[in-house]
Amino acid sequence: MRGAQTADAVVVGGGTVGGWCAWFLRRAGLARVVLVERALLGRGASSRAAGMVRAQGGTPWAVRLGMWTQDFYRTQREQIGVDSGFVAQGYLMPAFSEPQVEEAKARVAMQAGLGLEVSWLNVEEADALIPAMAPRRHLGGSYAPGDGYIDPPRNVAAYTAACLRDGVEVLEGTDFLGLRRAATGGVAAVETSKGPIPTGRVVLTGGPDLSDVGTRAGTRIASGGARHQVAVTEPDPRLAPDQVKMAFDLAEGIYWRPEDGGLLFGMSNPLEPPGPAKEIDWGYLDKIRRRLADLLPATEGLELRRVWAATIDFTPDHLPILGPALDEDGAVVAGVTVASAGGHGMMWGPAVARIAADLAIAGSSAVLDVSDLGLDRFDQDGLSRLPPDPIALPFPERTIAP
Length: 402
Description:
single chain; alpha/beta; FAD/NAD(P)-binding domain; D-Amino Acid Oxidase, Chain A, domain 2; 2 domains; eight-stranded mixed β-sheet; six-stranded mixed β-sheet; 8 helices; 27% helix
């Protein structure tokens, strides 16, 4: 470790946001970019995600982040010679009540106004789109044919290869201990378990551990962690890609997509208290399977090939965090940027990473105006002044248990 040599930027956290951010910083022309990861790149939630990538967000921020990220995934191979395995399979979001129909139609109008290819499908059209779905169990739904999914481990491999190829200095097995402040109040160095790295530019990421990263850096970050479960059924011809499209039962907090001849589905329990959890909750999984069988009868009685759980990050308003770090008095810590995808690492991660890199270099980004998405939107209890994005898994409303 060249601890005495000044880095042009240090990125803390080697997940999707941190990995791509380090690459974007290097591609922007910074000579020495250091990526600090306490374990291995992608060892946390980034390699254990379901890979859903949609632009059907509930706010203009979410739509723009999703659209930018999809464009990035589509052009990765041209840029870096590898890709994250993006498949544009189409995504249906069915409505199950009249209020949900009205809300969805308003979202479709907003999304289409931002340039997203999206439409409202009536009951017959939606049923024809997903033959495996039980007929007339919904009232129609919004559909975006460009939404899709990636392969999460392949995404980790892609940003790892990009970073190593383009000269990002990767420090795995290195703990982030804190920041050394300059006399002027900004950052002077990053303290790590392998020694200090002098720098005037830092990006803090960390997924479900971002709050702890913030504490070590001397800033409070309203980001938490919660259990998320994913399962994959055994193959069945009734679940082939021409029979099943990606879908999100928003009311119940369950989504699905084709996977290896079977069905991948994921869920989070809104009644579960926040905090690290990697064990499988078999009782809740059985509950969700009953709902899944009600909507997709072909899944009833199928064996599960794989089941896993991971702690994934979330923010109280289901929106990303992008902006400068703040000290205990609420003052900006010059040179330190905070970046969180708010539980949408596959869906928004590259866009969040690019914006974070732009903020670190120039203080703003052409990708998106994020002036309202900083830490200053949260009060002392971690509650946001912004209304939450309505298209999100049912995560807890607070980042810590009351």
